[in-house]
Glycerol-3-phosphate dehydrogenase (Thalassovita mangrovi), 533 residues
Amino acid sequence: MENGNSGDHAVDLFVIGGGINGCGIARDAAGRGLSVTLAEMGDLAQATSSSSTKLFHGGLRYLEYFEFRLVREALTEREVLLRAMPHISWPMRFVLPYHRDMRFEADTPTSRLLGVFMPWMKGRRPAWLIRLGLFLYDHLGGRKILPGTRTVDLTRDPAGSVLKDKFHKAYEYSDCWVEDSRLVVLNARDAEAHGARIMTRSRVVSAVVEDGLWTVQVEDADSGETRAIRAKMLVNAAGPWVGKVIRDTVHLDNGAGVRLVRGSHIVTRRLFDHDKCYFFQGTDGRIIFAIPYETDFTLIGTTDADHDDPDRSPVCTEAEQDYLISFASEYFKTPLSRDDVVWTYSGVRPLYDDGASSATAATRDYVLKLDESTGAPVLNVFGGKITTYRRLAESALEKIGPFFPGTGGRWTGGAALPGGDFPVDGVDRLIAELRAAYPFLDAFWARRLVRAYGTEAAEVLGDAGSAADLGRDFGATLTEREVRWLMDREYAVRAEDVVWRRSKLGLRMSAEQIAALDDWMQDARSNGQAAGE
């Protein structure tokens, strides 16, 4: 298998899309010995993959849609992923308050079934059914690390102190946090370490088959220059643009459809002092989460709304903000208002169009469609959850493998991502070691670095003996040396890549500080001082 990208050489795989699915597939394929080039038209994780609710979770509510395979696979993956990336993922406990007014969404299979056999429930979600769902949640995935469900007395437990007095009982269960955009970058880095070529800000403008090979024209976003890359197979992991690539780039007419669903979130000041999350159920059958976020904030989301155009940037509308504020205020003693909101974000999930009646009911399972009608194969990737990205990649390689005899077998299940080569319970030890080696770090700074870079945090800091040795201070503990690392190792080009995707320091930096960072990064690029130039 040739690892060339020009001339008469053809790479084995050309991956369109630098989100979690594209980078996960590129990593898996490169590790099996395939030559891989990936092109992303913007920054890695710039769209859907940096706009999630930041959870590795099985999808408790998907049980009501009888999506048992999806939930089982996701539950199993939680612990596989925890072991592979304990710096950017960690266990969390979720508190699900119960009250009699909870309702099903009307079109779930479970609600229809209970409507037939227990019509007197009138759409209510009974406590016994929630407990049954949590029992399945505890046992479907072969849980080993995470603790199981327990019942909580909210009149005594600290989790009840910020809730309205009408909530007396809750169920507490386990799921996991993940730094979603860092997950994407680390997969891209590991793909590159296995020989893949990662091209950001590189837009695919056309792909045609010539003599049994794809010729892909790629345009550089900065220079406007185009280059041709030949490939034996395409992987269309373009996320919200997957349908557009099918129609307008590779010109297929295979009938496969994508349903774009917008999910919006708000970030508020910190609403509670403990480290548990809340799973809130509405009287309309919908659910939202309220999650501790970046130490001093609370993340609340998400909404589900159809989105008509991938090129129209998703925003958290005023109506969505009001919906989330009102929803959360039904639970918290102190009502929320717009004044509590410090940031909003929104992303578009590219779900497979299964004909569901609502955005909420549309399947979250992934669908892989292989097409050979043009004379060379293309694999189109629909849907998926961030929790199951690794299994999606393995399923993709099952479809890709027959075109490349001799391809290696599965390998990612026990492989740590960069910086993740330490035990699940080893974060505090790493922080203590980092502070001992670099005494100028305070507790927040050290924890932030370990949670971002794991065992590589010391490489980021290098031989620094003081904060001054790290170069320019951009604010919020972000220094010149860290920015150089991000430009050289993690594909960062603009300030927004650094403060909203490689980190969330944008929550702590002023607009002036971010603008100054962007100017410095552009100067560094022009002067060839970063990104290995």
The chain has 14 helices and 20 strands. The domain at 426-531 is CATH 1.10.8.870 (Helicase, Ruva Protein; domain 3).
